[in-house]
Amino acid sequence: MNTNRILAALLAGLAAGAQAQVTPDEAKQLGSTLTQVGATKAANKEGTIPAYTGGLTKAPPGFKAGSGVWADPFKDEAPLMRIDAKNWQQHADKLSEGQKELFKKNPGFYMDVYPSHRTGAMPEEVLAKTVRNATTCKTTKGGLGVDQACRGGIPFPIAKTGNEMMWNQQLRYKADTTTRSSRSWVVDSSGKAVMTSQQQTFEETPYYHADLDGRDDQMYWRTYSVTSAPIRKAGEVTGLMDFLDPTQKPRRAWSYAPGQRRIKLAPEFSYDTPVASMGGVTLFDELFVFSGQMDRFDFKLVGKKEMYVPYNAYKLYFGCGVEEQFKEKYPNPACWRWELHRTWVVEATLKQGFRHAYAKRTYYIDEDTYSAMLYDAYDRSGQLYRSIFNSMIQLYDVNAPYSVKNVIFDFNKGMYALVNDGLVGGYGVVTKPRSNRDLNPETIVAKETAR
């Protein structure tokens, strides 16, 4: 790589990051015309997106706390319409390029569109700190890092740059600590579905922990997964930690393989390294649609746009059995629920002098939860390479938006992967974080390999 070009790109990024802060007058919008997290409170002019009234905070009938299954509050609703290969062009302005590509290539693909419900809700403490952050939170290192003082709330409820919006996505509230059993499946070009991994995953967000219990103040996310299938990978353990200033503290990744019987650092678990447990169909910086450093791309906040996104997807998470979820070229549309929501649009363009599998990426980020719902990635020739549909549910008993189940399409290979196919009873929220000692790699491996 050309050192001078890389330095010039970094200096340009620093200049671009020097944006004006939110003024007190601008911040007064939060809680009035804007919600406390910065979403437009009012309905759209057509009334097809309702006004925000606080989200879903009450459990519907049939919910059993601790069961790992969240009852569907909208199970009796009927679709408003169906978008298919015959009429999708009438709705093209609200579709991602990935959605359009599926309609073009697959006559049987369809999207059932249901009434929109703005169910996203967060704890009052998180909302209060989000409002505080509006006038006090800052990015560092030209947008590549975030000030530690932002902890506890969405950092930029009135975001003005692409980097700020992507930090909102990475630091969004999704419950302090969660566990889940999950499976990942890859459907190859012949239509054959193969389970590439079955894992038990632990995830925590120290960014939202009031008592860090000895954690590094810079750490904002930590996760590890233990593989139980396929047999050849059983006993493998991988872990990731991300930090608020990744220029100073890059992602710390590690892995353990039973055959080698030692823990190794894994710096390759970042950027465009393919994720083996997902069949290589997705990259490490596509986990949760985007994760990791932002130094290789220029991120531009384009604006807000109404899009059909997979929302309140309780049927997909808990209602469809494994065999129901797959079609040859796309997931079973009968398991999916689509709603019209406002999203922030961020375009990412590869910086000159840097390398990556993609030259351009587009993210559609939900205004109420900051979860990236849709995503398109393009190769160096400008052709659509991959797309992701990321589905959301509200964990109404703990006031946490949750989005871990997604589908990834590789249009070059004619394949797709369904990620985090939760086992029955496989989702859980842990109310008390584990100690820092219990979460060091040596302790994790010793505990998991003793089972």
Question: How would you summarize what this structure contains?
Answer:
InterPro entries: DUF1329. The chain has 451 residues and is an alpha+beta fold.
Pattern of helices and strands = HHEHEHEEHEEEEEEEHEEEEEEEH
Low-confidence stretches: 1-19
Strand content: 25-35%
Tell me, what's the shape? globular
Structure, described:
- The chain contains 7 helices and 18 strands.
- The termini are far apart.
- The model is unreliable at about 1-20 (pLDDT under 50).
- It has helices at about 5-15, 25, 95-105, 125-135, 160-170, 315-320, 440-450; strands spanning about 80-85, 110-115, 140, 145, 175-185, 195-205, 220-230, 235-245, 250-255, 260-265, 295-310, 340-350, 360-365, 370-380, 385-395, 400-410, 415-420, 425-430.
- It has about 450 residues and is of the alpha+beta class.
